[in-house]
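User: Some background: our group keeps a shared notebook of sequences we're curious about, and every so often someone picks one and asks for a predicted structure to add to the entry. Today it's my turn. The entry only has the sequence so far, pasted here. Could you supply the structure so I can complete it?
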Amino acid sequence: MSVDFILRIIGMFLFGLLGGYLGVDLSEITTITAETGAVILGLVGALFGLVLTPFLTTRPLRSLRSMLSRMETRALSSGLLGLTVGLVIAALLSFPLSLLPSPFGEIMPFIGVLLFAYLGVAIFVMRKNDIYSLFSGRMFSFSEKSEEDTADKNRVILVDTSVIIDGRIADISKTGFLVGELLIPRFVLDELQYIADSADGLRRQRGRRGMEILSELQEANTVPVRISDIDVEGTREVDSKLVILARQLSCPILTNDYNLNRVAELQGVPVLNINELANAVKAVLLPGETVEVTIIQEGKERGQGVGYLSDGTMVVVEEGKEYMDKEVNAIVTKVLQTAAGRMIFARPEDI
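Assistant: Of course. Here's the predicted structure to add to the notebook entry:
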């Protein structure tokens, strides 16, 4: 039996009894008998308890749990700390406030508790990054640090599953180009584990490779990595959860998924795309320059040969078919930038 059903039964009995007692009391001021009043109001109370008990018990608790699950750990811990500080201040002021003339002496301590509890939570949540820096020992550092440096270190970057499986994130983090904390939600880790347990051999291998990359990131400690239980209610899609979570935390998403990239950009969420980074750092070749490339396959057009540079850039060599499995010096004739990457057209140097 579910918790809702059990609470409905309990509520039905409690409100039924309450209605029965009210029916007896009302019979004294009305013409109906005590038994009739108790039965009628008892049935009304039982129906009331059966229908409305979940809205008074489990539904508010679920809403509170959903709200807390969406909150960032720093905000939640800062709010609890602020609540404690506010209640302590209210407790210290309750005695002086109780000495005020009546009725202020009875009302003001209660108002003080509400006011200082609210102020404590609000102020500590607004200054959560400073609180975190204070307890991390970075606020009173003797080295001069700009606000931009502090903001960069406190920046959170949401990590998509595709990036972990891709594996290049480990090499990028070692270079120091990723500034901030890598946040991996629990639902991303669950998706990675689901892929690692897949019946398909290739998917299983990619998932296990992602687990190894994640362990390597944690052991390297070049960039802080945090796995959080924060979740998003109302959707089961991992991409949708990442976009909603990024909007709530005001942080970018690290991914190489084209569809997630487009959806996030449409909703105003900043994206760090590893594929775009890889294309941006590729060597720039201009028409007339010479490249060395090994022809490994035929091209789509007659006589063409195809090879690849060390960074993965495709080079289409005109009349390169006769140089199959050979290294050839080719002169660049045209460079095309496509959605899939950069494509270079060239011709053999000796033609």
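Suggested note for the entry: The two ends are 82 Å apart (CA to CA). The longest strand covers residues 327-338.
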